[in-house]
Specification:
By secondary structure, the protein is of the alpha+beta class. It has 13 helices and 22 strands. Pfam families: GSP_synth.
Length: 415
């Protein structure tokens, strides 16, 4: 039996005993059998950078709530959402957010923040521990699951208070046919230890007085795993033709429903916000909004990002991506001469406002997979839970990191 066959057998034996997880996606290997070791000092550095970037975005969220409509439109934020995204009724911009970081020769840099409907949760908070236990390795994410559970309870309790509900009916929802989304909300429901229900997204019923689950019970707090606000505002009932997304936002506006992540998380989701932050950093206005220390963080941890490509025509490679894109969808990479080098096949978000960001090359490592040893690029996912740095994980792939890339568990490097 060669190394590949041994790997496949051991991987199958390990993951087949794991309930409610998806080691394979799209009929391909997803969760790798093994870990990538990282020094404890580097984990602390990732945590520190994550918290600092979180502070920058939180300050911007406060400023954007007071901004005029023209500013919000310039960020590509749908007009239909203006009435709710300025709300900050629970005092938390985002309960669960994930930063995508890349390790460069100049340190870690932020590619983007997923503050509205982040994925990669079960992998980092639960499965990573199981993999580390299996290999008798130390988990850098140890105890983070308890922090996540506490944050969920806080989010639920504060959301219920914001609409005046003492005994809230809490529902976790996702597309039931999507194994990743459904198992993620099932996991979050479980660890929250809050009396709640599961209901498939297509079973929810909306009316003028509230949102109802499949038992006919009115929902007070809705956790929406993959129902992003930019899709929600365009959601049309195929039978009635009614704009059910706008109806749902009106329920939130009128405090007949609370949603998690809260609408304020959507203020941070637009990649155009990174262009705004970078523009402020490069202008004299920077000192009016950020402290000297915060400006240094922006210069250290963020990549030059603009709403046009012109600043890169001085000989720097760059990437164009949609302001609300996900999983590498609709991105295009250009060399230092402005010539396209790669265009993602999926162009779902081609009508959205694009942003242009300096290209950061992802570090590579040779990793064992069912295809043998592969040279893969590594992207760090770092969670921000109620504004505090939390679990980390690695997505590994070739070329652009997208929804077909691997999950690579992490462990602490032995001293």
């Amino acid at each position: 039996m060669d190394n590949v066959e041994k790997y496949r057998l051991k991987r199958s034996q390990f993951y087949n005993n794991m309930d409610d997880f998806w080691p394979d996606l799209y009929e391909k290997e997803y969760s790798l059998y093994g870990t990538y070791s990282i020094a404890h000092s580097e984990v602390l550095e990732i945590n520190r950078i994550t918290a600092r970037i979180g502070q920058i975005f939180s300050k911007m969220a406060s400023n954007l709530r007071a901004a005029d409509d023209a500013t919000l439109r310039a960020l590509g934020i749908p007009v239909e959402s203006f009435s709710v995204i300025r709300m900050n009724s629970i005092g938390i911009d985002s309960v669960i957010a994930r930063l995508d970081l890349v390790k460069t020769a100049d340190g870690y840099k932020l590619l983007e923040i997923n503050s509205d409907t982040p994925t990669f949760i079960v992998e980092c908070f639960r499965v990573n521990q199981l993999v580390c236990d299996h290999f008798n390795l130390e988990n850098p994410n140890q105890s983070t699951e308890a922090d996540l559970a506490q944050a969920l309870r806080r989010g639920i309790i504060e959301s219920a208070k914001s609409i005046g509900s003492k005994y809230p009916h809490v529902v976790f929802t996702a597309h039931a046919e999507n194994i990743e989304d459904w198992n993620t909300v099932s996991y979050l429901k479980e660890i929250s230890q809050f009396q709640s229900s599961l209901c498939s997204l297509d079973k929810l019923v909306i009316s003028e007085d509230g949102l109802y689950d499949d038992t006919g019970s009115r929902i007070d707090v809705l956790y929406r795993q993959t129902y992003p606000l930019e899709h929600l505002v365009q959601d049309i009932d195929p039978e009635s033709g009614g704009n059910i997304g706008i109806e749902l936002l009106n329920l939130v506006k009128n405090k007949k429903l609370a949603i998690i992540n809260p609408p304020s998380a959507f203020l941070l989701q637009s990649k155009a916000l990174q262009a705004l932050i970078w523009g402020i950093y490069e202008s004299e206005a920077g000192t009016k909004i950020f402290t000297t220390e915060e400006l240094a963080w922006i210069g250290s941890y963020m990549l030059p990002t603009y709403l046009e490509a012109d600043p890169f025509l001085n000989g720097r490679a760059y990437i164009r991506k949609p302001s609300f894109g996900r999983e590498g969808d609709t991105i295009e990479i250009f060399d230092k001469h402005g010539t396209s080098q790669y265009k993602e096949a999926l162009q779902t978000y081609d009508m959205e406002l694009p942003v242009y960001q300096e290209l950061a090359d992802l570090p590579q490592a040779e990793i064992m997979t069912e295809q043998g040893r592969e040279k893969l690029q590594l992207l760090i996912g770092s969670f921000l839970i109620c504004g505090r740095a939390s679990a980390i994980g690695i997505r590994a792939g070739k070329g652009v990191i997208n929804n077909e890339s691997y999950f690579l568990p992490v462990s602490l490097k032995h001293k």
